């Protein structure tokens, strides 16, 4: 993305300076301006995908740590519930982001299809993220304030499984991110 921004920035600078001289940039020195699509890469690199995932993975891990702490203590069960809600929203966000950059050419950060090396990892991350929201909804629908209450255990367990699956997907990005956080 930075490379594309640099190319676009250089093109804007070039066009601006050429037009400021009173000439048409596409006609200066007998050259024609390249089409805008030529500046966009045909396929994004693994590192571009990893840089997109990195901040989401860091925020996810930080929130999971907070939720695990909050859900251990009866005095913080409200924070536990709100933490699960936050995780649900974070999961929804990464699913939308990854889907948007891979399948929507109109998306501002469009990357195209992921490289073969990480194609399955991108799919796994999206699938795991999409499983968190229904788990949270089932948990929230029980009206549970305490994840350890008898009537809440099944839904709280399902929520922890969904959170664990997305955590594992994010952890699988570690070789591309350089670290867990």
Written overview of the protein:
This protein folds into two domains: 2-38; 43-177, Four Helix Bundle (Hemerythrin (Met), subunit A), CATH 1.20.120. Helix content is 67%, strand content 0%. It contains six helices and no strands. The longest helix is centred in the middle third of the chain and has 27 residues, at 77-103. The radius of gyration is 22 Å and the shape is elongated. The two termini are 21 Å apart. Residues 1-40 have low confidence and may be disordered.
Spatial gap, N to C terminus = 21 Å
Mean pLDDT: 79
CATH class of the largest domain: Mainly Alpha
Helix content: 55-70%
Number of E strands: 0
Strand content: under 5%
Number of individual domains: 2
CATH architecture of the largest domain: Up-down Bundle
Main beta sheet, described? none
Order of helices and strands: HHHHHH
Which overall shape is indicated by the principal axes computed on the Cα atoms? elongated
Structural class: mainly alpha
Radius of gyration from the alpha-carbon trace, in angstroms:
22 Å
Helix tally? 6
Indicate the CATH topology of the largest domain: Four Helix Bundle (Hemerythrin (Met), subunit A)
User: Assembly type of the shown chains?
Assistant: single chain
Residue runs with pLDDT of under 50 for 5 or more positions: 1-40
